[in-house]
Design a protein that fits this description.
The structure is a single chain. This protein is mostly beta strands. Strands 1-2-3-4-5-6-7-8 form an eight-stranded antiparallel beta sheet. Strand 6 and strand 7 form a beta hairpin. The protein is built from two helices and eight strands, in the order βββαβαββββ. The longest helix has 9 residues.
């Protein structure tokens, strides 16, 4: 578990001294919970993150009223954001004694994620493309302890009228000390 709290509004390049903005702090609060379970054959992990921005309505009005020459976007900000996900996999090579003795591992896995950076709004409406669900399935293969080859198919689902995004990803990772 972890958390963060801090004020964000007065750290801008723009003048925030207007009497209308007195008391606006833009306090950011973030809470996070992560877990992992690994019994050598079965692996499960997941997370839940939630963020809240106080005074989001006043900050949105401030953003929208900025000059058209501003380097910042003139848009509303969300008062809340959320992200969560869970993944599980099983080492099928652990069922084959010859492969297990060599230390090889092969984890077919499945993963689900949901995230929305505009989960709640104090003013205006949320942006539909900010709410996303993602399903993934693939394999993590460890030919040796320090090397992992990952292949996955992922499909991100958006609310209408936005297009869904399928993708195929392949990667190689090395974990170890360089001396």
């Amino acid at each position: 578990m972890s958390g963060y709290v801090g004020n964000s509004f007065r750290n801008t390049l723009y003048d925030t001294s207007s009497p209308k903005l007195k008391g606006v702090k833009g306090t950011v609060s973030i809470g996070s919970f992560d877990f992992a379970y690994n019994d050598k054959r079965f692996i499960a992990r997941g997370f839940f993150d939630y963020g809240h921005l106080s005074d989001a309505g006043a900050i949105s009005k401030f953003n929208i009223s900025m000059s058209k020459n501003s380097t910042s976007k003139r848009q509303s900000v969300a008062s809340d954001a959320i992200a969560c996900g869970v993944e599980a996999g099983y080492d099928i090579l652990s069922l084959i004694p010859a492969q297990k003795s060599k230390g090889h591992r092969l984890y077919p896995f499945a993963r689900y994620d949901y995230y929305n950076s505009m989960y709640k709004m104090e003013t205006g409406s949320g942006l539909g493309w900010c709410s996303k669900q993602k399903l993934s399935a693939g394999i993590n293969w460890y030919p040796i302890r320090q090397v992992m080859v990952k292949a996955e198919y992922t499909h991100r689902f958006f609310k209408k009228p936005y297009n869904n995004e399928p993708s195929i990803n392949i990667g190689i990772a090395y974990s170890g000390w360089f001396f």
